Amino acid sequence: MTVVVLLGAPGAGKGTQADLLAERLGIPHVSTGDLFRAAVRDASPIGLEARRYMERGQLVPDDITIQMLLDRLTEPDAAGGVILDGFPRNRAQAEALASALAEGGSKVDRAINIDVPTDELVRRLSGRWVCGESGHVYNESTNPPKVPGRCDLDGSPLVQREDDKPETIRARLDQQLASLRDVIGYYDETGLLRSVDGVQPIDQVTTALLTAVAEGAASGAHEAR
Ligand code: AMP
Q: How confident is the model over 170-192, as pLDDT tens digits?
């Protein structure tokens, strides 16, 4: 089982890179943001509750988030591991993940921070568009769709997420950079952290991430001996 935690501020490219890594490593990309957005679309009890926080650019409470994520990890496609995107967002979530994995005899293999300066994040976030159908991510300047306003993969119209509107961006960044620093600190202390430069072309970021994952797998194998 390979568990990779992708860290980075909103707009650092976690979603895009998690899709690419999932394909290369053959394990699913699990995004708590996507799970919440699906729950909101389905108007499930979790969705109705989560929506109140998401609209304000705030984190959903830990009890709801942790339960939802741990439920997702019990699904059959996650048996070989997962690429986590958007989770954990604080120490409590990181600790809950570590103990749940430990119960099953596994652990986080590697936590990787995709490092992007704040000014660049704001620029990227205000240009982000996603497809309404399945959440594929585009950016006006760094990763535009081939046909403006249409998803390359499924042709569906591109929309701007409610929480990517400029007034919400600053609130999200302020709050999430603080909790990101917390989580980075946690994985640094546990020796699992690596950092990659997120201001490189997309394929170079992917290569750097794959190298970091391979090092994590190698050191895990070494510890097991
Ligand atoms: P994201 O797509 O990761 O930016 O998440 C969108 C929104 O979903 C966030 O602004 C939060 O409101 C909520 N969310 C996603 N992941 C978490 C998490 N791990 N903890 C709390 N709230 C989350």
A: 777 887 888 899 999 999 999 99
Domains and CATH numbers, the chain: 2-117+176-224 (3.40.50.300)
Strand order in the sheet with 137-139: 137-139, 128-131, 158-159
Q: Phi and psi for 67 in degrees, rounded to 5?
A: -60, -45
**What is the pTM (predicted TM-score) of this model?**
0.84
Q: Strand 110-115 and strand 29-31: pairing?
A: unpaired
Q: How far is CA 163 from CA 8, 119, 130, in A?
A: 17, 18, 12
CA of 40 to the centre of ligand 1 (A): 12
Closest approach atom of ligand 1 to CA 31: 3
Distances in Å between the Cα of 27 and the Cα atoms of 22, 75, 120 are: 5, 12, 30
Task: Name the DSSP letter for residue 221.
Answer: H
Both tokens assigned to 153: 């993969």
Residues 132-185 have pLDDT tens digits of 888 899 988 788 999 999 999 999 999 988 777 777 787 778 878 888 999 999
CA of 222 to the centre of ligand 1 (A): 34
Q: Give the active site residues.
A: 14, 89, 128, 161, 172
